[in-house]
Amino acid sequence: MLTSGVDVERDPLGRGLSLVAARAFAPGEVLLDEPPRFLLVEADDGVDDELLAATCAATGQSAAHELPRTLAAALALWVRLPHAERCAMAELFCKPDDPGLAELCASIAAEVRTRVPRLSHVGEDAGVPPLGDALLVWLLSSHTTACVESGNEGAALFALGHRCNHSCAPNAAYVPAGAHRLRLRALVPIRAGEHIFTSYLRSHELLAPCHVRRALLSARKCFRCVCARCAAADDAEPERALPCACGARAALSAGGAWRCAGCGSVAPPSAEVLARERELCARAARDELHAAELEPGRWTEHWVHCAGAWREAADELRAALAAGDGARARASWPLLVEHFRAAESRHPHARHFVSAHAAEAFACLRAAALADADADAAALACRLCAPYLRALEAEYGVDDVHNAQMRAFCAGRCRACGRPDACAVGAHCAECAAGGAPADCAFLHVGERAEGDAAVPERMGLQMAVGACEGMRVLKAAASGAEVVVVNAAKAC
């Protein structure tokens, strides 16, 4: 179902057809709610042993691997479809920038044909694309879906949903809508005539610099990203910053040199640093990097530190909750603060980049607060996660059960001590207010400010200073006296 106000037009950058807003949309509005055009359900994909064995042999992967099962299921569906339906699937085909994937799929299809005799003539009738193209459609255009009622996951092709092109600064996001439907929601205000973009990357991967994002998209979707954010990053990548001798940070600038934002010095990066950076970037993109493995202080302003801090904090929180170890859970809190500080200081108006992290952090901290009656955990849950509630509601809806749980938990809870006796979200209890608690959250700024004609989120960086830039600021985490040292704090918002 195409909602009124959304059209399909040719993309000006040559990316095929694209979804375009014919009217203005507010954050959280549903742009598209669509049933699948073609569906493969995990519990009933029609894949027999012969077909699965053939795709395993053709891909060189075992049956436990996702790739041969996906390809085998797609081929099984292709065999069952009548001629007209195969032609309809062909209309969803989009040739990748990299011809290598097309050649690979063609070779896989050819080998499967030889191993499964009943496929020898499938796809040879006029007007129907070859089997290799059918595989490409599923690899490049399918979406993972779920059915709440049956609990079955699946993969599906959507007639309109796959027309939404990628951007590393998306203005919309897909969310499962039950019964294997796909729902597209606006993340930010969208003007009439504006192209609608979603992200083909995982949300936290949007924190990575341009060269990493492009490498991930090339490997998974076989195209080079030319979105506005990547085009701007061709000149500089501020996410790749290292400490300078003056105490400020040096970011990678045009020409491959590191330019310091403090003293202005320019120096070429050493081969050792670049080699180490390549290793860390690759591992961080695979979610295998831990903050403890970074050289102390060297990568503090680099995106890999943000990725590593989250990975270690999340792992420690989960393990501590499972073991009922409150002290271990508290030890991970400074890493949580550091992760959100780094993410927010670089992308102050893109809360959805780490909204999934905020939701997971809230779930863990809330569990700790309720299990141990831990007011500090409750306070940290509110401080870190409540500012993301608006972004989560825009992405998943106000009625989402997890969003409702977060709002109910934060409502009326003091943002300084965590006690549930303040008058409103973001407020302080009488005792903390009398003691001089800051007007804003000690970790994040909350609310919105007007900028031009559009309301945009308040800058989300930590409250480093008031009215001036400080060289160093020690922030007290609500974690049993733990301290997080933040070097070269930015100016206060």
UniProtKB/TrEMBL annotation:
InterPro entries: H3K4_H4K5_MeTrfase, SET_dom, SET_dom_sf
Domain SET: from-to ranges: 4-201
CDD domains xref list: SET_SMYD
Coiled-coil zones: none
Domain of life the protein comes from: Eukaryota
PANTHER family: HISTONE-LYSINE N-METHYLTRANSFERASE SMYD
Record's protein name: SET domain-containing protein
Taxonomic placement: Eukaryota, Haptista, Haptophyta, Pavlovophyceae, Pavlovales
